[in-house]
Write a structure and sequence with these properties.
elongated; 13 helices; 9-stranded antiparallel β-sheet; 5-stranded antiparallel β-sheet; 499 residues; Beta-galactosidase, Chain A, domain 5
Length: 499
């Protein structure tokens, strides 16, 4: 009996010796290769240089890990779940080869799988951003990459949920294409041409693979914001799957250093000319931040800079708005009388006659939209840029602890549908500035009826922006709040001087 126990202990100890995680460390990433299955099990991605700790923190996150919420690699054999379990349980021994610039590890399975011992090779450059991998794929095997909550980030309620996501993507010279996560994505298996990157991305972090040869790629969402990507060799036989793997920040400089085409991941939903505007604003914000050393102050100064750059256009738009207000005041008594006394076609003809009498086009009010319309492209570009700005993650300003999240001044007693469980003060401040600007900008020449109508429109717009931005990241709301504050500061002195 004692001898049996000793044999069992010896087997367990031998298995434990083989089960040590295989470590690969570089300046910008730390990896643990799982000795069971031979795939990366834990991957710590770093923004600049990795810290001494293996735990996630500022500027570094666990892009792969075992456990709930973690993204992970795994083997899958369609139609043969038992074979998939054996592949993921297959134990490997490691052989290290070290040079001044690279660390290479060769994994060899201790037991054969379907008559052959599998060999995988990984090479990590010390100062590099990518991992080179050559995986021996048995016939029919699929390499799967499943996304987890870590990739999604902090869940946001309401419209803020646009910035809490994970999806499967492909990236090539034509830009980013979604393979999951939207209505246009298809779960059907497709062929990926050599050089195309495929993988998973969240708002700030991504895991991407670039197969050397043509492969078959499938993607689907197994749950909301939990995409699964499958890669298999093109053809029925086995062989090596050669890959470059990037796991790191979705940040223009880092992506461009890996491969120029990966910059196509930035602001991928925008038209090319809007992307160019977003990149320009990203550059300007970065320059201001380097100068002042604070992201929140930099966002406020960015808003001021954009105001100054757009001043010629807004000056013309404000003159047009004043002309529209004067024209409305001139026409309003006659138009009110027509609406009171006539109906249908007769009212229409008399209204056109009033326009002709004063030499005014019936579409004259469209001029008043100019001030709003010229801001839309800048608004979209600024918001996309701030929403994807990696530097805002963890950056605080005044009472805001993290500009990449809502400001969350205090927790509410309960959770409100759509609005969430926190009081966000910045959207309230933004709305107050909007209403104050609307009241200050009121023209005395407008009749009571026109003034009431204008107030209603402006208050409705303020309410719309409040609902739209309440759950948005604080950096984005700070930009629009600063914009409204600057507008108030511009018009208030003139209003006071005219009194």
């Amino acid at each position: 009996m004692r001898s049996c126990v000793m044999v069992i202990l010896a087997v367990l100890l031998a298995g434990a010796a083989h089960a040590q995680a295989i470590r690969l460390d570089g300046d910008q990433q730390k990896l643990l290769i799982n000795p069971y299955g031979g795939l990366p099990g834990r991957w710590l991605g770093c923004m600049e240089r990795c810290a001494g700790t293996d735990e996630p923190g500022a500027g570094q996150t666990a892009l792969l890990r075992v456990g709930a919420g973690g993204s992970r690699f795994a083997w899958h054999v369609p139609g043969d779940p038992e074979a998939g379990r054996k592949l993921n349980a297959l134990t490997y021994r490691a052989e290290y080869r070290q040079t001044d610039t690279h660390t290479t590890v060769i994994l060899t399975s201790l037991e054969p799988f379907r008559g052959m011992r599998l060999v995988h090779r990984y090479a990590l450059a010390r100062d590099g951003r990518t991992l080179s991998a050559s995986l021996q794929m048995p016939p029919g095997a699929v390499l799967e990459l499943t996304g987890g909550a870590d990739l999604v980030g902090t869940p946001l309620p309401g419209f803020g949920s646009f910035y809490s996501y994970a999806r499967a993507i492909s990236v090539d010279a034509d830009g980013q294409q979604n393979l999951s996560g939207d209505e246009d994505a298809s779960a059907a298996e497709r062929q990926s041409v050599p050089g195309t990157w495929v993988g998973l991305r969240g708002r700030f972090w991504t895991v991407l693979l670039q197969p050397k040869d043509a492969v078959r790629v499938s993607a689907a969402d197994i749950a909301p914001d939990q995409p699964k990507l499958g890669i298999r060799r093109d053809g029925a036989g086995g062989g090596n799957l050669d890959l470059q793997i990037y796991a790191g920040p979705v940040q223009a400089t880092e992506l461009g250093a890996v491969a120029p085409e990966l910059r196509g991941m930035m602001y991928a939903s925008l038209w090319d000319w809007l992307r160019a505007l977003a990149f320009a604003m990203h550059w300007l914000l970065g320059q201001i931040q380097q100068l002042v050393g604070n992201w929140g102050l930099a966002i406020m100064l960015l808003s001021l800079s954009v105001k100054l750059l757009m001043w010629p256009l807004t000056f013309v738009a404000e003159r047009w708005q004043a002309e529209v207000n004067r024209t409305q005041s001139l026409l309003q008594p006659q138009l009110t009388a027509i609406r009171r006394e006539f109906r249908g076609e007769e009212a229409h003809h008399r209204t056109l006659a009033v326009y002709a009498e004063h030499g005014v086009s019936q579409f004259y009010t469209l001029k008043s939209l100019a001030g709003f319309l010229i801001q839309i492209p800048v608004f979209i570009a600024a918001f996309d840029m701030l929403g994807e700005n990696f530097g805002l993650g963890g950056a605080g300003f005044l009472w805001v602890q993290d500009l990449s999240l809502p400001d969350r001044v205090m927790a509410l007693p309960g959770v409100l549908p759509f609005f969430g469980g926190y009081l966000n003060f910045l959207p309230v401040l933004m709305t107050l500035f909007t209403i104050a600007s609307a009241r200050v900008q009121e023209e005395a020449s407008l009749s009571a009826e026109l003034l009431a109508s204008q107030r209603l429109r402006l208050y409705a717009m303020a309410a719309l922006f409040f609902v739209l931005l309440y759950t948005f990241p604080a950096g984005m709301v700070l930009y629009w709040t600063s914009n409204n504050l600057l507008h108030l500061c511009k018009i208030l002195p003139g209003k006071l001087l005219r009194r």
